[in-house]
Amino acid sequence: MKKAKVIWMNGEFVPWDEAQVHVLTHGLHYGSSVFEGMRCYKTKKGPAVFRLEDHTQRLFHSARIYRMDIPHTPEEINEAILETIRRNRLKSCYIRPLVYRGYGEMGVSPFNCPVDVAVAVWEWGQYLGPEAVEQGVDVMVSSWQRMAPNTFPAMAKTGANYMNSQLIKMEALLYGFVEGIALDVAGYVSEGSGENLFILWKGELYTPPLGASILPGITRDSVIRLARDNKIEVRQHLIPREWLYMAEEVFFTGSAAEITPIRSIDKIAIATGKRGPVTAQLQKQYFGVASGQRRDKYGWLTYV
Ligand code: PPE
């Protein structure tokens, strides 16, 4: 990976290579971490973070579910993020705030372990490959399903949930696909290993509801708002697997994946197998706002 200069750890800036933890860190053994992922885009007025406050709010919600008291306010975390970008002198980057149960005591109970916080930033190119955003990606429906409700909370962005994501992702890569789509425990479409999903059907957009074991994606929310402003109906609706193959367009959304068209699923082409016009239009608007070239009427950008 492309190293940056410094990482913020519990309120202090430490050199990249020295940002280390004890091997008995609770989060390493028991998956006890919550995190965020967001992007900072290059604009004419300098770097700008996309939906900073919404990501920080989701971080606090994830922590709340797991009874982790973050020893900082959301404002302090926002400032730590902005200062980390400044000190690393990056024009654009990916941002990874991490909250984890640190080194204290072994055993499942995390209560005697500190809640540690870190913020790292680095340059990160296109998540699903260099041509993914224009050409689209070939994906498969995973043999792994998303976690059942009331097992691992899907709405919390926790390290532990990404063991499920890793099963989905590794299977897809080893079978020659770029990504996997997981079904929920009832067999309805849920999401990718690191992305939400939308389909276009008869000119309307459909995306799985929160009850289908999805992460409430911030890019998903951005796309819903852009689409509605374009007078495209958006429905949060259960999606049977076979609907994927019939759809006019299918795309992924995520902070890392941005808006990525899906051109085939299980080797069945989606429509003509090329990026569709609605996907292209939403991309144009999304990247337009993120890069500061379109008016940010939503207040999505925080200038660094
Ligand atoms: N679902 C999952 C499982 C997920 O990990 C992400 C983000 C999303 C949906 C989309 O959420 P949002 O970013 O708020 O629109 N995945 C992050 C992790 C990527 C990684 O490999 O690390 C991301 O996109 O930052």
From TrEMBL:
One of its GO terms (cellular component) is cytosol. Keywords: Amino-acid biosynthesis, Aminotransferase, Branched-chain amino acid biosynthesis, Pyridoxal phosphate, Transferase. Pathway: Amino-acid biosynthesis; L-isoleucine biosynthesis; L-isoleucine from 2-oxobutanoate: step 4/4; Amino-acid biosynthesis; L-valine biosynthesis; L-valine from pyruvate: step 4/4; Amino-acid biosynthesis; L-leucine biosynthesis; L-leucine from 3-methyl-2-oxobutanoate: step 4/4. GO terms for biological process: isoleucine biosynthetic process; L-leucine biosynthetic process; L-valine biosynthetic process. GO terms for molecular function: L-isoleucine-2-oxoglutarate transaminase activity; L-leucine-2-oxoglutarate transaminase activity; L-valine-2-oxoglutarate transaminase activity. InterPro entries: Aminotrans_IV, Aminotrans_IV_CS, Aminotransferase-like, B_amino_transI, BCAT-like_C, BCAT-like_N, BCAT_family, Class-IV_PLP-Dep_Aminotrnsfr. PROSITE patterns: AA_TRANSFER_CLASS_4. It comes from the Bacteria. Gene3D superfamilies: 3.30.470.10, D-amino Acid Aminotransferase, subunit A, domain 2 (3.20.10.10). Its cofactor is pyridoxal 5'-phosphate. Pfam families: Aminotran_4. Its EC number is 2.6.1.42. It catalyses: L-valine + 2-oxoglutarate = 3-methyl-2-oxobutanoate + L-glutamate; L-leucine + 2-oxoglutarate = 4-methyl-2-oxopentanoate + L-glutamate; L-isoleucine + 2-oxoglutarate = (S)-3-methyl-2-oxopentanoate + L-glutamate. Belongs to the class-IV pyridoxal-phosphate-dependent aminotransferase family. Acts on leucine, isoleucine and valine. This is Branched-chain-amino-acid aminotransferase. It comes from candidate division TA06 bacterium DG_24.
